[in-house]
Amino acid sequence: MRLLLALFFISAGMASGALRDQEITLEPGWNAVWLEVEPQKADGTPQSPAEVFQGVPEVAIVARYLPANARFEFIEDVSVDSLGNDFWLKWRRDTQVGGNTLGGMEGNTAYLIFNRSEAAVEMTLNGAVSFHRYDWQPNSFNFVGVSVGTLAPTFSEYFSPSGTHPLNQIYKLAAGKWVAVAAGERMRKNTAYWTYCGGSSSYQGPVPVLLPDLTEGVLDLGETVKFTNVTAGNLAPSASGLTLLRLVNDGIVVRDATGGSGIVDFDITTDGTGAGTLASRSSATVRLEIERGWTTAPPMRENLYLVQASIAGGSSYQQYLPLRARSDLAMVAAAGAPLPGLWVGDVVMTHATSLVAGKAGSGPRLESVRRPMRYRVILHGDAGGQTRLLEHATLMKKQQASDQLPDEFVVVVDDTKIPDFIGIEQRGGKLVGKRFDTAGYDLPRSVLPTVQDEANPNFAPATLSTEYLLSLPLNGALAPGGVITTQPNSLVLDAWHRTHPYRHVFNPEHAKGFRIIREMRFEMDAAGSPEADRTPGFGASALSGVFEESVYGLTKPGDVHRSRGRFVIQRVSEVSSLQ
Q1: pLDDT at 396 over 80
Q2: 314 assigned to some structural domain
Q3: Averaging pLDDT over each range in 1-10, 168-177, 323-332, which range is the top one?
Q4: Residues sharing a CB contact under 8 Å with residue 78, sequence separation 6 or more, in sequence order
């Protein structure tokens, strides 16, 4: 389930660089407008009303309510005289320089705008967008609006779960007068309302969301944050749905790290993809993984998402979600040249998640383990920089016609080719190859999904392929500062893999297992870093760094086991090809 929805209060200029258009219609006379976007100057500060409405002479007055300076317990019809100086910031087109008190027009803010013409004025405003969080003033009317979808929710659908915003104390502007709304009336786009708050309230709509990494309306993950949690709840009396749609792709890849279901970036054209459902009076947490794959300027990138909450009867409301991340391009540029050859070493796991039911602390958070786990890894890099994961390898040499010719060493991964070469060390009076093995992982079986169906629980193949991969291609190169990862859905133990932990040779109930997927990530230390300086031979005969692994399918569906530690690998041969 993918959940992403939040509201964030912004009291100053928006920090987001994402720009969107907002189309508004100003009827003759007074208009109560909910401004979603923030028109900005070149320096990123909000434009003044004079700048925003420079080409719209029909707009004569703009006013913004100051909730910090007033507590409105009664609503009076709007007029120039009703806009007291203590409660409102105002701009008038005919006011002399220095007489206006309203400076910049901020986004996610309600305004009163007077159209002095006798015809409606349609205009499009372009500005920055960000998350909005309501900051309710208790025991007072608040001047607010809601960003609604194609079918707007009714006031009852939106405010009934709050318990602090009475439906009979919400007012709309009609012909210059404030009129009570009907509970079953639908909210209007771009419209602000006087909404009473009885007592203290932190209400953010029927589907509230917590985003710990939200900063000034932007989900800002900086250079180092790789995972971020999103917790959503449903206060509505029936199930609510959430959908994440990507409006702008600036290169940041977002993955669902909760259930291993993959990338959750969905273009606006795939409306509905990635929807999640929350039962009434329930909540859920989604863990997102951020991938910074760009290597060219600018170092900071910002994706923009539209998050829609669908509630009863198909109505919806929505928010913009800018997501920002930065890549250390200097470190990327400093990554050394690939180091070909055979590399053998150990990973030592020091942190892991706990999936024990009922155990305190069980969940997606990494915890220190009581006893570190160690296992061997075998990697090989060729002359072109392609890295491969090996399960075993044997160092041997070619047979030469003369002892005077130099030795030509080989790395053998296909055991059927061992007789074609000679050993390099004495054992029991014979020359044998130097072999490296690992029990830490198994390479996938070579299968065709159309022939060996894992999805059908009743399917049993007539024959099982016993062909297993000898090496597994990886992304990335063996180099200081580099990053190596398994390719998506590549390191797999299929249902009939020879070492599958759920298979049992004598029990027909365990003839097949579940599909298990492992994802590995080797992040090499940068040359000159303290960690690299503590590794003898770093950058020539040794590499070290941070190792992370995720295992999907080992427990119940949807669970993922994660672990992290460090690795040190030694180059045991510079041979750049495999036999």
Answers
A1: yes
A2: yes
A3: 168-177
A4: 30, 112, 173, 176, 177, 178
Could you tell me which of 204, 194, 203, 200 has the C-alpha nearest to residue 72? 194
Q: Quick one: which of 337, 300, 338, 302 has its CA closest to 320?
A: 302
Nearest to 388 by CA among 477, 457, 452, 322: 477
Q: Name residue 259's amino acid.
A: G
Does position 184 have pLDDT exceeding 60, yes or no? yes
Three-class DSSP category at 177: strand
456 has pLDDT over 80: no
Dig out the tokens for 282 from the structure. Answer: 């329930």
In this structure, are 190 and 214 located in the same domain? Answer: no
Please name which of 85, 127, 93 lies closest in space to residue 108, comparing C-alpha atoms: 127
Our count of domains for the chain comes to: 2
Q: List the structure tokens of 61.
A: 């007055």
Predicted confidence at residue 271, as pLDDT, reads 38
Domain assignment of residue 462, yes or no: no
- Give Cα separations from 524 to 62, 292, 336, 545, 572 (angstroms): 57, 16, 10, 4, 18
Residue 470 has which token pair?
């000898």
User: Do both 185 and 218 map to the same domain?
Assistant: no
152 and 252 fall within a common domain: no
What's the rounded Cα separation, in Å, for the pair 90 and 102? 5
**β-bridge pairing 29-35 and 109-115:** antiparallel
Bond before 49 cis per omega within 30 degrees: no
Q: Report the DSSP beta bridge partners of residue 451.
A: none
Reference 61, options 87, 36, 42, 83; nearest CA is 83
pTM of the full predicted structure? 0.59
Q: Residue 58 CA to chain centroid, in angstroms?
A: 44
Of 216, 210, 254, residue with least CA distance to 230: 210
- With a CB cutoff of 8 Å and minimum separation 6, the contacts of 421 are 396, 397, 398, 399, 410, 412, 433, 579
> Cα separation of 144 and 35, whole Å?
10
Model confidence pLDDT, tens digit, residues 35-61:
999 999 888 889 999 999 999 999 999
Find the angle CA(435)-CA(436)-CA(442) to the nearest 5 degrees: 125
User: Where are the extended beta strands (E) located within 438-578?
Assistant: 471-475, 483-486, 491-493, 516-524, 542-552, 560-573
Name the DSSP class of 148: B
Structure tokens at 455: 């999805």
* Residue 184 domain flag: yes
Give phi and psi for 169, each to the nearest 5.
-130, 45
Q: What span, in angstroms and rounded, lies between the C-alpha atoms of 85 and 64?
A: 11
Calpha distance 235→159 (Å, rounded): 10
In a domain, 42, yes or no: yes
| pLDDT tens digits along 230-284 | 888 889 999 888 877 888 888 888 877 765 445 455 443 333 334 467 888 888 7
Task: Give me the domain span that covers residue 251.
Answer: 209-333
Greater confidence (448 vs 237) lies with 237
Q: Which residues of 258-270 are buried (b: 16+ CB within 10 A; e: fewer)?
A: bebeeebbbeeee
Q: Are residues 320 and 281 in the same domain?
A: yes
CA separation for the pair 258, 232 (Å, rounded): 14
Query: Residue 107 is which amino acid?
Result: G
pLDDT per residue as tens digits for the range 111-124: 999 999 999 999 99
295 and 256 in one domain? yes
Whether 115 contacts 175, CB under 8 Å: no
